Amino acid sequence: QVQLVESGGGLVQPGGSLRLSCAASGSTFIINDMGWYRQAPGKERELVAAITSGGSTKYADSVKGRFTISRDNAKNTVYLQMNSLKSEDTAVYYCNADYTVATETWEADFDSWGQGTQVTVSS
């Protein structure tokens, strides 16, 4: 099984920046798509940004032009650079990864979530 460990959350003033990191660890896996989701109090979890193994990206309309997702395949790590932060970006941010485990006789796809990291944008 793949474990995801997030870091980089915290308190920042409106207009500020934060960079989230999420590192995947485990054994015998291939990471496919990776993404960042967020969940604000009283709201459903929503996709913020996603990136394929080839580097194609997609973003929620609310963060386009402000957030950038990237990944280092050699380190099995995904990043989320967040600029021009707004109070409405306040949420718990979760890392997600789709991965494949393969042996000589079978192959299967799985999905893993990180524990979440709090991002608070406030003056």
How would you describe what is shown here?
The structure is a single chain. With 123 residues, the chain is an all-beta fold. Helices cover 0% and strands 58% of the residues. It has strands at 3-7, 10-12, 18-25, 30-39, 46-51, 57-59, 67-72, 77-82, 91-102, 107-113, 117-121. The strands form two sheets. Strands 2, 4, 5, 6, 9, 10 and 11 form a seven-stranded mixed beta sheet that branches. A four-stranded antiparallel beta sheet has the order 1-3-8-7, with no helix packed on it. The termini are far apart.
Topology (SSEs and partners):
Elements lengths: L2 E5 L2 E3 L5 E8 L4 E10 L6 E6 L5 E3 L7 E6 L4 E6 L8 E12 L4 E7 L3 E5 L2
Parallel strand pairs: 2-11
Antiparallel strand pairs: 1-3, 3-8, 4-5, 4-9, 5-6, 7-8, 9-10, 9-11
Number of helices: 0
End-to-end CA span: 40 Å
Low-confidence stretches: none
Largest sheet: 7 strands, mixed
Round the mean pLDDT to the nearest integer and report it: 95
Class by SSE composition? mainly beta
The helix content is: under 10%
Number of strands: 11
One letter per element, helices H and strands E, the order comes to: EEEEEEEEEEE
Q: Over all CA atoms, what is the radius of gyration?
A: 15 Å
- How much beta, percentage-wise? over 45%
Describe the global form.
elongated
